[in-house]
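Quarterly update from the structural biology core.
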Amino acid sequence: MLQEFQQVGADLFAQGLISSHAGNLSVRLGDRMVITRRGSMLAHLQERDLIETGIDRNDSGIALASTETVVHRAIYRHTSALAIVHAHPPTSVALSLLMDEIVPVDSESSYLLHKVPVIATEHTTGSADVARLAPEYLQDYKIVVIRGHGIYAIGQVLEEAFQWASTLEESCKIIYLLRTLGQEVKDYRKRSESYRTW
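Predicted structure, tokenized:
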């Protein structure tokens, strides 16, 4: 398990999806979860950076667990997720300040994500608002963006959740590049209008 956390943490940092001490990862183990330590460096995780705590109640591990623990717990309670990646991909965050949903235009992201909802809430970091709203969307989507803050992606393993985070950021970079070109996009997908009515 440590190796999986280390690989995904290092990849998140290498791809620029987090800054040095940002983001968090978790996996579910029955009625418990393992989550990264508060303030840990995901690119350099050690065994001491993995904190085990309860999903339904606090125990001694909670003092060291990520400040986003409340959100991870809520996602595990209300979805089938077994792993969660929370990151701050910059292009995705930038577009979240302009859009209510992100609809990919490139082929791979269209196929994998279809569209991604943007959740707006006044309190974004480790808040009860995010803990209430994110699980609702993650019952139907693989990933959501918290406006101005970052993403929560779910999967059966950390690698799968990381894939959705990486795919979304790549898609957002393409949308950004298209906007800077200022040209009308030539559509190439069958039933492209259906992507907005998921």
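The first strand starts at residue 24 and ends at 29.
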